[in-house]
């Protein structure tokens, strides 16, 4: 009895369940998946990239990609290749998602003093019917996220500066402070744009 041929569309469907560890967007809409090949034996080769070369959760994301694709019935070997050419940019995101989250705007809505601003979470965590998690802002807009993002958001209690949050994140991951700083700052900005953090008070 032959195994049913897996389609690229089926692979992409599963990959849309895989969320980036730092940005509340799935890896397909984020533009990280460059190519998917499925062989006659249902072996799957995926070419993807990361938002930055120094991404501290590189291995976590690759593992998550394999985990979701491995749920497809009849799947063979799964190979994930990380490539840096072409480099990722905000323009590679799904335009609808990019506009919804407010990413890539020429000017930021919020100017942040990283030494003084203490991010304060707003909104709530909800669980979807399929078991996935989402952060919902006060306007009722939901954003699919993973546990890493939720844990970071939960730590934004209004009593820690961005620098302190970066220190905590660095210690948790066991990575150099400079390696995670850019990702933390980026996540703070994106959570604010999604109205999941209170904006800085204007003096």
Q: Descriptors for this entry?
A:
203 residues, alpha+beta, GMP Synthetase, Chain A, domain 3, Arc Repressor Mutant, subunit A, 3-stranded mixed β-sheet, globular, DUF59 domain-containing protein
Structure description:
- The protein is of the alpha+beta class.
- 32% of the residues lie in helices and 14% in strands.
- The protein folds into 2 domains: 8-90, Fe-S cluster assembly (FSCA) (GMP Synthetase, Chain A, domain 3, 2-Layer Sandwich); 107-193, Arc Repressor Mutant, subunit A.
- It is built from 6 helices and 6 strands, in the order H-E-E-H-E-H-E-E-E-H-H-H.
- The protein is globular.
- The protein starts with 7 loop residues before the first helix and ends in a 10-residue tail after the last helix.
- 29% of the residues are buried.
- It holds the Pfam family PqqD.
- InterPro entries: Fe-S_Maturation_MIP18 (IPR052339), FSCA_dom_sf (IPR034904), MIP18-like (IPR002744), PQQD (IPR008792), PqqD_sf (IPR041881).
- Residues 8-80 form the MIP18 family-like domain.
């Amino acid at each position: 009895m032959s195994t049913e041929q897996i389609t690229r569309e089926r692979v992409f469907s599963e990959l849309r369940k895989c969320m980036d560890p730092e940005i509340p967007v799935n890896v397909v809409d984020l533009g990280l998946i460059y190519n998917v090949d499925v062989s006659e034996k249902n072996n799957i080769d995926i070419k993807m990239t990361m938002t930055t070369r120094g991404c501290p959760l590189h291995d976590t994301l690759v593992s998550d990609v394999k985990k979701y694709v491995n749920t497809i019935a009849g799947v063979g070997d799964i190979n994930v290749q990380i490539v840096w050419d072409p480099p990722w940019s905000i323009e590679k995101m799904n335009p609808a998602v990019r506009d919804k989250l407010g990413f890539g705007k020429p000017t930021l809505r919020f100017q942040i003093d990283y030494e003084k601003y203490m991010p304060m979470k707003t909104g709530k965590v909800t669980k979807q019917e399929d078991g996935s998690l989402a952060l919902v802002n006060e306007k009722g807009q939901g954003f699919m996220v993973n546990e890493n993002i939720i844990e970071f958001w939960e730590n934004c209690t209004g009593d820690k500066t961005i620098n302190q949050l970066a220190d905590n994140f660095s210690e948790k991951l066991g990575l150099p402070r400079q390696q995670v700083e850019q990702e933390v700052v980026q996540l703070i900005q994106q959570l604010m744009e999604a109205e999941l953090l209170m904006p800085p008070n204007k003096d």
